[in-house]
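hey so u asked for the seq, here:
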Amino acid sequence: MEEQGDTRLAAGFTAGDEECMAAVYRRWRPLVHALAGRSLGDEREAEDVTQQVFLAAWRGRGGYRPGPGGLGAWLTGITRHKVADALEARTRRARVVEAAARVCARARPEPEPGPERAVERVLLLGELARLPSAQQRVMRLAFYADLTQSQIAEHTGLPLGTVKSHMRRALHVLRRSLEPAVPQPIR
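ran it, structure tokens below
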């Protein structure tokens, strides 16, 4: 008797009868939810998978072909696929979290600058102040405002090539003036 009821439900379901869909949901939801819950071990994920199974079944109802086990077996197959998808998504999320943790571990903030860093900073600021005003402005925007060369050009109204030239010349001057004096060999 139950088999005939299931056959009628399946026929109405595949025909797009929404009342049959509701009956199919009531009939097989506990089975689908139990399978998902056992496989995933998480109630919220199991509920999500259950919803996904019935949504996929409704959308793919035209592909249902009665066979051994009927509509219940078909829904169980969809459940297995959706559980596998959920487990894969969980694995991907775990990999992303691990990768982010590795990146964060590598990007630890620098320790507080010591006295030698303060001296270097004072020297750098002094040399920066000696640059011509256009080069000084470009360098300050690059290092203190953290702007790219294109953004500096847009901000100042200077052509990009001019910004690049100012930066190159300023860096060259700073490099020369801040390099430690290299002792010359005695001849």
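The helical segments are 2-15, 18-40, 43-59, 70-106, 115-130, 133-143, 149-156, 160-178. The longest helix spans residues 70-106.
lmk if thats what u needed
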